Amino acid sequence: MCDVCQEEGRDPRFHNGKRPMQFCRLYRVYKSQVANINLCHLHAIELFCIGETRFLESHPRLALRLHRSTRTSSSDVFAF
Q1: What backbone torsions phi and psi does residue 24 show, to the nearest 5 degrees?
Q2: SS3 per residue for 18-79
Q3: 80 within domain boundaries
Q4: Residue 79 included in any domain
Q5: CA dihedral 23, 25, 29, 32 (to 10 degrees)
Q6: What gap in Å lies between CA 33 and CA 14, rounded to an integer?
Q7: Is residue 60 part of a domain?
Q8: What tens digit of pLDDT does each residue of 35-73 get?
Q9: Is residue 14 part of a domain?
């Protein structure tokens, strides 16, 4: 399922049709880390056209979820 559609409560089949989901990596989100997301066809095109920074600005719920996921995963790494 498309991560953006899931966060915004949309049906990705409406955007995507029968096309497969696209696995995308965001390189400029985190310092020295890569964020992996699944996108439908239309959101993948949007990411390509406007770039990572503006894409996350236009989808704040996704940005917030990515922020929360790195906070929890980084705290698990250092837990003894």
Answers
A1: -125, 155
A2: CCCCEEEEEEEEECCEEEEEEECHHHHHHHHHHCHHHHHHHCHHHHHHHHHHHHHHHHHHCC
A3: no
A4: no
A5: 140
A6: 32
A7: yes
A8: 899 999 899 999 999 999 999 999 999 999 888 876 655
A9: yes
pLDDT given for residue 72 in this prediction: 57
Q: Count how many domains the chain has.
A: 1
* Higher-confidence position of 3 and 31: 3
Distance CA 39, CA 56 (A): 13
On whether the pTM is more than 0.90, the answer is: no
Q: Domain containing 66: what range? A: 3-74
Distances (CA, A) of 55 to 24, 38, 72, 79, 80: 13, 14, 23, 33, 36
Sign of CA dihedral 57, 59, 64, 66: negative
